[in-house]
């Protein structure tokens, strides 16, 4: 733990918020269309209807807001999953939650030609919930009950299953393939504020509840027997935490598709900085997750300019070596 006192942790959080704000401003300014910081300022203070101002207002700004929201959501979901399962590899992507949410959205697009953002959101929640509870159920089989390694294997199996089913649907429906291919790689390109406003009430509520749960998760982390001895209703805490994870992961997938590795990398980085106190881990995950996804999205615009790489590819490039490192360390908290 690098930041030891509450004053230093608070200072670090404020600094992180400043970096996130600067990153979002850079996301608004930089891209294929040649714009400047001055032009961006004028787009929001002296709008003149030019192409550049329209791009800055209707394309770049929503993209920056969505990147910060999705990154924060996935990071918090990963931190809650790791705390709940005591598994350092737990994340919405590894446990198949993202894949389940994505599968249900693809069903809606390919079989029922659904185009409603609100419908996408609810289907993503449903798919995330089914995937999460299936992984928990499968991981609980056997004499030893629920263990980190069994959860990881069950999650990997469910992720592979949902991904295969998704690909199968798209193979027989080429029109749907054109609609969702870029989305399935994990991308916030081309999203507008309607995409964000359709899920922000649910994600905002989940953020708030996760903060309320933080002290209870600290108690639960000491062991279930100790938590029960202190009067905690552990089953209720686990169930509410699971629903928060489903809302955060499902809402993120509804906006941007299944983006991986944010939920693995950021919680470990947050704990490295400020320790295991979830009253600090959760807000740090929100800020650091937002920074990671916004910066990754900026990088994705320049790798094969004038084309764009999906931001999910960028997070995979960053996250894969980290995943291998955590896996080689073993299951130690």
TrEMBL record:
Location in the cell: Cell membrane
Residues spanning the membrane: 64-83, 95-114, 120-139, 199-221, 242-269, 281-304, 311-327
UniProt keyword list: Cell membrane, Membrane, Transmembrane, Transmembrane helix, Transport
Pfam families for the chain: FecCD
Membrane topology: Multi-pass membrane protein
Record bears the keyword Zinc: no
Broad class of the protein's primary localization: membrane
Gene3D superfamilies for the chain: ABC transporter involved in vitamin B12 uptake, BtuC (1.10.3470.10)
InterPro entries documented for this protein: ABC_BtuC-like, ABC_transptr_permease_BtuC
Similarity-based family: Belongs to the binding-protein-dependent transport system permease family. FecCD subfamily.
PANTHER family reported in the protein's UniProt record: FERRIC ENTEROBACTIN TRANSPORT SYSTEM PERMEASE PROTEIN (PTHR30472), SIDEROPHORE TRANSPORT SYSTEM PERMEASE PROTEIN YFIZ-RELATED (PTHR30472:SF65)
Record protein name field: FecCD family ABC transporter permease
Species of the source: Metabacillus herbersteinensis
């Amino acid at each position: 733990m690098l930041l030891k006192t509450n004053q230093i942790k608070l200072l670090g959080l404020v600094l992180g918020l400043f970096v996130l704000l600067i990153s979002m401003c850079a996301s608004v300014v930089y891209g294929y269309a040649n714009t400047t910081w001055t032009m961006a300022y004028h787009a929001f203070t002296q709008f003149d209807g030019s192409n550049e101002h329209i791009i800055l207002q209707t394309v770049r700004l929503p993209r920056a807001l969505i990147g910060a929201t999705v990154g924060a959501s996935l990071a918090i979901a990963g931190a809650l999953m790791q705390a709940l399962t005591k598994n350092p590899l737990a994340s919405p992507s590894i446990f198949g939650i993202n894949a389940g949410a994505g599968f249900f959205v693809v069903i809606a697009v390919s079989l029922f030609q659904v185009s409603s953002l609100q419908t996408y959101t609810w289907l993503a929640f449903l798919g995330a919930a089914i995937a999460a509870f299936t992984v928990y159920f499968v991981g609980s089989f056997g004499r030893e009950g629920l263990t980190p390694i069994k959860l990881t294997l069950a999650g990997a199996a469910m992720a592979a299953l949902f991904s295969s089913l998704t690909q199968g649907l798209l193979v027989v429906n080429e029109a749907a393939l054109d609609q969702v291919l870029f989305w399935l790689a994990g991308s916030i390109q081309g999203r507008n504020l309607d995409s964000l406003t359709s899920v922000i009430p649910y994600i905002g509520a989940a953020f708030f509840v996760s903060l309320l749960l933080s002290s209870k998760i600290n108690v639960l982390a000491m062991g279930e027997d100790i938590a029960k001895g202190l009067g905690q209703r552990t089953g209720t805490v686990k169930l509410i935490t699971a629903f928060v994870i489903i809302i955060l992961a499902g809402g993120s997938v509804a906006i941007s598709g299944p983006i991986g590795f944010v939920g693995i990398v950021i919680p470990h980085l947050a704990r490295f900085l400020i320790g295991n106190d979830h009253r600090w881990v959760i807000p740090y995950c929100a800020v650091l997750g937002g920074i990671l996804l916004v910066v990754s999205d900026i990088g994705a615009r320049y790798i094969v300019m004038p084309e764009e790489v999906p931001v999910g590819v960028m997070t995979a490039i960053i996250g894969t070596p980290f995943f291998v490192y955590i896996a080689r360390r073993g299951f130690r908290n």
